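Let us work through a complete example step by step.
Step 1: write down the sequence.
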Amino acid sequence: MNSPEPELQPKGHMNKPGKRGLTRLLAATRHSRDGLVSAWRSEEAFRTEAVLALAFLPLAFAVGDGLAHQLVLVVCCALVILAEILNTAIESVVDRIGPEHDPLSGQAKDLGSAAVLVSLLLFALAWGLSLWQWWQG
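Step 2: predict the structure and record it as tokens.
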């Protein structure tokens, strides 16, 4: 006996009405730009990390020994920015829920902060070892 065709969407999932194709992609791009602008305006840590990333990115091509090494250095810069954006998003949602102290809200904020710390430690390790190797010649 043949089984029925599998569903393409999970049960209970409804397609969102609205934009499709290129129009949706352009709208999503505008939302992403708005998120970056919001992070820049509201988060000093984001501004600091973004400026440092812009300074380190060209250096990756001088310090990195080959394309793979250069890519690792660039990705480490991007991970710090990504972690900071996600941390800011978590903080925004938690603050939207309410100002009262809640252990789960505090845990969510701490976890977001921990993600930033892990990305910064990875950045420091990769760049520290790379700069040391480059300096030693």
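Step 3: interpret the result. The chain is about 80% helix and 0% strand.
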